[in-house]
Design goal:
This protein is α/β, with parallel strands linked by helices. It has a domain of 131 residues: 3-Layer(aba) Sandwich (Rossmann fold), CATH 3.40.50.170. The protein is 37% helix and 21% strand. The protein contains 6 helices and 7 strands. It has a 7-stranded mixed beta sheet with strand order 3-2-1-4-5-6-7, sandwiched between helices. Helix 1 links the parallel strand 1 and strand 2. Helix 1 packs across helix 6.
Amino acid sequence: MAMKQLAVFASGTGSNFDAIMQAKQAGTLDAKVELVVCDRPGAPVIAKAEQAGVPVLVLRPKDFDGKALYEEHVLSACRAHDIDGIILAGYMRLIGPTLLASYQQRILNIHPSLLPAFPGKDAVGQALDKGVKMTGVTVHYVDDGMDTGPIIAQEAVPVADDDTKESLQAKIQAVEHRLYPEVIQSLSMKEESL
């Protein structure tokens, strides 16, 4: 199934949301962001989405009696907006069975490392701590593990001897902001090319 009607799930600044919206405006992304789901009231991505005219659903998971009820509410909103693909963009929660069952092989995540290296939080810090000369970016389907789903695309990013966490993060984000919209576009065309 082609992914044309997207929900972007984000918890923070929304830099990958910005990149997706810029690709749409530039005509290099043939999909539409119909909904932003945010689990942190006050996160900068909320104002960015509102400014772009994208509906926003802001929910605090702790306000629900368990993950399943939280995800049922999110799923209901996704269905109301005819969402056929979910794009995780700095969403700092593991996706549970409720969403996974409804969007199998239609939830994407971007991770700042060459998975399976450095899964989880602070992948940039993990890479620097290990002293690697190469890290990168991975776009993958989401499964029930942490950063363990099937890999769709990867791109390497060299680590310089003088890189700091901030400088390496900036290099990785530059790749993310180009690669993620490219991958989303390739999946939005999937059905049409058959």
